[in-house]
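Hi all, long-time lurker, first post. I run a small reading group and we've been trying to get comfortable going from sequence to structure in the token notation. Rather than ask abstract questions, I figured I'd post a concrete chain and ask someone more experienced to write out its structure so we can walk through it together at our next meeting. Sequence below, copied exactly:
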Amino acid sequence: MKAALQLIAITLFLILSGCTERVGETDTGGVLLEVEFDDSTFRVGVNDTDLLALDQVTINSVISRPGGGSSSLMDVQLNTIELTYTRVDTGTRVPLPFVYNVVGTVPAGGQLSYTGLPVMTVEQLRGEPLADLLFQNGAVDSETGASIIKLNVQMRVFGQTLAGVDVSSVPRAQTFEFVPSLTTTF
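-- Answer (accepted) --
Happy to help. Here is the structure in token form:
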């Protein structure tokens, strides 16, 4: 009986010591996603455009357990991009979130780049609070009294590994300064 209990204790010890998952860590399909784009403050004329897009966005796949190997089942098929907005200035109103479908596969440990990826459409640019900066609306934020609105645009990408595990990136933020126009003075 004592030998059986020792065998069970040794077996449990071996099983538990082989577990490398940390508290709070979830199954990521073996990969993590990172969003990468230019790290400068962008200035946008609200009256000048109906679509705001980034020149280049790169999605990186990082093997979550280096040395653990990888396979094509860890490739991520992207399906959704989510953009949310927070104020950097003293205002509180923000544009509506922008969510859309995207197609592309990020190889395990590799990257995928997009050119001209939209971060705002006419719905965000002509809705609160940016609509206040339109010439016909006075070109001043009604909440702060300023002719500039500063927003952090936060991007997240979502997908699924070929093995069927849902994967998402952490939010990647970029500051944008919105003014009435870059080409016209008022």
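A couple of things your group might point at:
Residues 74 and 161 are 5 Å apart (CA to CA).
The domain at 27-45+53-120+150-164 is CATH 2.60.40 (Immunoglobulin-like).
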